[in-house]
Amino acid sequence: MPLAPSSPPLATDAAPLIRCHDCDLLQAVPPLPAGGSLKCARCGAGLIDAKPDHFERAFVLYLTAFILLIVANSFPFLTMKVQGLVQSSHLLSGALTLFDEGMGEVAIAVIFFVFVAPLVKIVTGLMVVGSLAYGRGFRGAEALYRLFDRLHPWAMTEIFLLGVLVAYTKLVDLATVVIGPSMFAFVGLILVTIAADSAIDPHQVWERLRPAPRLPPPTEEERRRLVGCHTCQLVVELPRSTQGIESLCPRCGSVLHRRKPNSLARTAAFLITAALLYIPANVYPVMTLSALGSGAPSTILGGVMELIAADMWPLALIVFTASVLVPMLKLISMSWLVISVHTRSRWRLRDRTLIYRLNELVGRWSMVDVFVITILVALVQLGSLANILPDVGILAFACVVVLTMLAALCFDPRLMWDRAGANEPAEELRDEPVAVAQLREPARP
Question: What does pTM read for this prediction?
Fold first, then answer.
């Protein structure tokens, strides 16, 4: 039998409404004190974190992060000295070397993850938060902050720093490695960016840009037509007619849908492709060390074994977990979630939703091995003495990481609750985009 639909905890008085982005439960937003938070009453997903009004602090932090990012790209990052030879690298030197070695796809990914995405994210945060700290926003701020939300999982500066740590431990016993000023600026950039992101909650930004209306408890018919924007969480009422053009959120401009378009098919396609590439990613070498004319290829597992042989067990465990265990577990767990939707499983819905959130959170950390190779190929270019060259395995591995991230982004966890009968009416909760002629916010009381 299907699950009985949960009764949404709606207030008796007019209040802003919110739909959970993980299970689709419609809930009223109660007054939250500074420091309070709102979690979904059904699946436990975090919806709102009412932090103190620190827009000015966030603006200063984003400005500092912008300056540090410029500094991190202006001076030497690491310098290796061995037998009178000196090789310096900048933040993006490894990516440029990958271009020269025919790994343009990996190079573009590294530049995007380490420089482009963080830069655009910082600039958009600086502009939007600054306008709210010292004014009332500007035309187009909503679309700009939507870009901020899209780029968040792809900005990987902290993962690149872990890659630097792994590369440093591989080289420190072989040569003298000098940390340059850009390295210190880069560490500061990561800390300041984390502080800026933590100063305010995205929900606060959206509410300052355009507050959600306070609504009386909707009737059952009205409730069925209310759709939550997956970007800004605004609850929007769909007209009775569902024939027409593609619908957009009136606040942020995102495409609105009851469920992500073709979620299961797209997720399955990404997972199958990633599974096929996972084998060559671990079988083929990711780099080749050429020393005094002889080469020694190395796989991902080979790199882990080298760390173990050097008695660096904690670092070996981190690399093994991020580069071997996490991609494998993500492929298995995401495949299980897709199958559970097809089989209409009602087993431990809340726990399965948590597994989805963990997949979305940790999958990006698998990129650490790609960054390790990027740093090593930039530093170990010592002519006939020693060279490190990227190999085909690193391309396959980078594809696995990106594909599993895309699979998690495409999967719609609300489908698990739909197929278990926890959401009503079932006929309206299709795995396809909403197409309507007109959208409007729910009428104000």
Answer: 0.85
